[in-house]
Amino acid sequence: MENILQLARQRRSVRTFNGQRLSGTDLEKLKACMVEVENPYGIPVSFRLLDAREQQLKCPVVTGTEQFLGTKIRLVSHAEEAFGYSLEQVVLYAQSLGIGTVWVGGTMNRAAFEKAMDLTAEERMLCMFPIGYPAEKMAVREIMMRKGVKADNRLSFGEVFFDGSFDKALTPEKAGVLAEVLEAVRLAPSAVNKQPWRVVVTDTAAHFYKKTSKGFVSQTNGDMQKIDMGIALAHFALAAAERGLPLRFELADPQLPTEAGTEYIATYCFA
Q1: pLDDT tens digits for range 47-86
Q2: Residue ranges matching CATH 3.40.109.10 in the chain
Q3: How many CB atoms lie within 10 A of CB 110?
Q4: Segment 2-25, tens digit of pLDDT
Q5: Domain 157-270 has CATH 3.40.109.30
């Protein structure tokens, strides 16, 4: 895969595809990636390539593709974070191949997708992914959707990263070798661009927290913002690995004083 920070800068949610089916070579590469991805929670995620015509699937927010990536996972503790972590690796790899994707959690004929995925009573399809090659121009509907969620805007570095505690903003200069790793996190995608990640960096660790917004938890989709946190954790780990920075994953709340509505998620210790 190419440079993670570069891929994070290049990638956008694609809802307008050019109508061309994925090549056999790209499909095989994508399948191989699906088999290889893991997450630090050790919770398996299942993938399946789906065809709109064969399985009567519909997604009204996309045009120009009939190919989808279906997913399923057992809804156990930390399933959402594991799901986001694993899926974002596939998404970034797809981007490196020139394949467009978009995270879709609700705007679909869900019953048909769930049937195509052969869900058991213990499994959930938290999201699915239209896949294909991006069209040269976005449809008007896609342009309006992106404007509605301010898709190209990001919170500043000091709004999401903190130096030792939540009362002191972290600067790129103070972050040092972690600056680009954290920038990859800052550019990660999230549901309606809420960017819920908050990271407190100390001399020994990076502690990840979720800044909770209302309306993102459901029995069907789980906690969408915990999926976002899994995505952020993946960006951090992948970017750190590229730079040869050893990490150790832990679930050990440091009990730092937090902002209201902030929930501890996980820690990466600097091994």
Answers
A1: 999 999 999 999 998 999 999 999 999 989 999 999 999 9
A2: 4-142
A3: 15
A4: 699 999 999 999 999 999 999 999
A5: yes
